[in-house]
């Protein structure tokens, strides 16, 4: 029996960032992992833990650009595609979400990539417009990806979908 490994998912994202040249020193993109040197990000995530216990929030990746300082991309990873998004996501996006017990909410935020990244985006959207990306799966081919926009100051995020 093999166990899921979230580090493999992070490597998939990291490899994609490298392919897109996000790590090139000559570029205007900064990729930070688990923590940020941006003061506003540190302040907004200071008590943003998914556990609900008041600790620091730590998305796997925080992508910024000095030329667009009010805009961020954050990424939350999970190894197992079964942990991509909870059944509550559509209710959360529509604003029709009923109250939830703190313990149940904490478990949901910790388990699911989409739920977790939206939790971080909500905190960060007080001062930034945020593209929030949830990635689950240990291979690029097998990965599930969801992308959301939480515009600065808005109450709810929007899911970004491709139209065919």
Span from first to last CA? Answer: 39 Å
Binned, the helix content reads: 25-40%
Q: Give the total of beta strands.
A: 6
Count of discrete alpha- or pi-helical segments spanning 4 or more residues: 5
Q: Categorize the overall geometry.
A: globular
- The SSE string, one letter per element, is HEHEEHHHEEE
Q: Average pLDDT, to the nearest integer?
A: 91
Strand order of the largest sheet: 1-2-3-4-5-6
Please indicate the percent range of residues in DSSP E strands (runs of 2 or more).
15-25%
* Rg, Å, rounded: 15 Å
Taking the sheet with the most strands, its summary is: 6 strands, mixed
Report the uncertain regions.
none
Derived from helix and strand composition plus strand pairing, the structural class reads: alpha+beta
Characterization of this structure:
The longest helix is centred in the first third of the chain and has 14 residues, at 6-19. The protein has one domain. The mean pLDDT is 91. It starts with 5 loop residues before the first helix and ends with a strand. A 6-stranded mixed sheet has the order 1-2-3-4-5-6. It is globular. With 164 residues, the chain is an alpha+beta fold. It contains 5 helices and 6 strands; from the N terminus they run H-E-H-E-E-H-H-H-E-E-E.
